[in-house]
Amino acid sequence: MKLNHIGIAVKSIEERLKIWRDIFGFRVEVIEEVPEQKVRVAILESGALTIELLEPVATDSTIHRFIDRKGEGLHHLSFEVDDIEQKIEEYKKKNVKMIDDVPRKGAHGFRIAFIHPTSTGSVLIEISQKEEKN
Ligand code: ZN
Predict the structure, then answer these.
(1) 21 Cα: distance to centroid of ligand 1 (angstroms)
(2) Cα(126) to centroid(ligand 1), Å
(3) N or C terminus: which one in the chain shows less Cβ crowding within 10 Å?
(4) How far is CA 16 from CA 8, 61, 63, 79, 86, in A?
(5) Which residues, chain by chain, have CB under 5 Å from ion ligand 1?
(6) DSSP character for 3?
(7) Please, is 122 exposed, middle or buried when counting C-beta atoms within 10 Å of its C-beta (0-12, 13-18, 19+)?
(8) What is the pLDDT of residues 61-78, one digit of tens each?
(9) Burial of 31 (0-12, 13-18, 19+ CB in 10 A)
């Protein structure tokens, strides 16, 4: 599997860019809202590593609940796959608990699905597939 990005929950993207962009030197690829997940997402690139900063835009956002419970910090690892539907079926057959049985829309033209942390020793894993451009 290939690591696509690391997702980090933040209260304010602007606030956290002070370290990720200004100190660590990450380039801001895009900042966009993903209404389906009630988050703003900043995609940061270093060349070797992609970081996704996730900022809630509503109190019923899962990211808002995450920050309430655990505070800001590491949220998920995202692995890139070629066929997300096939992976979901494969994992379910192998008794891996999925949060998403059907892929949802992620940031930056990706479709994503989350694996339940109870199946992974409390690490939230996202699988992601770049959407075909027709
Ligand atoms: Zn992600």
Answers:
(1) 18
(2) 6
(3) C
(4) 10, 19, 15, 23, 36
(5) 7, 52, 78, 126
(6) E
(7) exposed
(8) 999 999 999 999 999 999
(9) middle
CA distance 59 to 96: 29
Reported as a single tens digit per residue, the pLDDT across 24-42 is 999 999 999 999 889 999 9
Q: Where are the beta strands (DSSP E) in 60-131?
A: 73-80, 104-105, 110-115, 125-130
Containing 9, the helix (H) or strand (E) segment is strand 2-9
Tell me how far the alpha carbon of residue 69 lies from the centroid of ligand 1, in angstroms: 19
Cα–Cα distance measured from residue 13 to residue 37, given in angstroms and rounded to the nearest whole number: 16
Q: Tell if the pTM clears 0.85, that is, is over it.
A: yes
